[in-house]
Amino acid sequence: MLALIILGPPGAGKGTVAHFLCQKLNIPHISTGNLLRQHARQNTEIGKASLVYTEQGRFVPDKLIFSMLFDRIEQKDCQKGHILDGFPRTLVQAETHQRQLGKRSKVMVIHLNITDQEVIKRLAHRLVCSACHTPYNLITAPPKIAMTCDRCLSKLTQRADDCEEVVMSRLVTYHKHTSPLIAYYSMQNILKTVACNRPIKEVVGEILSHLSPT
Ligand code: AMP
User: Are 4 and 40 in contact (CB under 8 A)?
Assistant: First the structure.
């Protein structure tokens, strides 16, 4: 079982990269952010409890994240593995995830490298499908029809937490809590850093070359 973690700041393209990789590797893409937004739309207990955090770009408490994520990982379609985007975000989450998987999984980590300036520029132009969550970018990956998803024709929206003020605070949080994971996984020799300020096909191609045994 492969647990592939896509690590990087908001706007690095984790969702887009994971979307391509899940088709190539045939294992599901699990985004804790998307799971939380789904819970919020369905007005579940997790959705209601997490909204106050997600709207301000703050971390949702681990108890909610773990129960939501580990339920998802236990589902049948994850038997061969899973691709994680948005998790882990802290050392505690990383350690808990590895403990939960135990010896049955091989953990691999891809670190998407990008500058803060590029993140701010990208997120100002990011749109997401309100139904299937396919990400778009008005400059680098625009939809064929304005404000309409190419895949399911639903309306595209801007995420509430993509406004500049919230993005700045998400970047501060990333550097403080999530970037230490780069050293944590590097020391286990399971991390590869990939530059992501280039066409998505090149980024995915490099990641696949890291995953295939030489
Ligand atoms: P994302 O779509 O990954 O940018 O996540 C959107 C928001 O969901 C984040 O700003 C957090 O408020 C929350 N969130 C997502 N994943 C996690 C996590 N692993 N731990 C805590 N909060 C999370």
Answer: no
Task: Identify the helix (H) or strand (E) that includes residue 33.
Answer: helix 32-41
In a domain, 137, yes or no: no
CA-closest residue to ligand 1 atom 10: 57
Single pTM value for the model: 0.90
Report pLDDT digits (tens) over 32-79: 999 999 999 999 999 999 999 998 878 999 999 999 999 999 999 999
Q: How far is the CA of 54 from the centre of ligand 1 (A)?
A: 7
Which uninterrupted H or E stretch holds 84? Answer: strand 81-85
Number of domains observed in the structure of the chain: 1
Question: Which ligand 1 atom lies nearest to the CA of residue 31?
Answer: 3
Domain enclosing residue 59, as ranges: 2-114+177-211
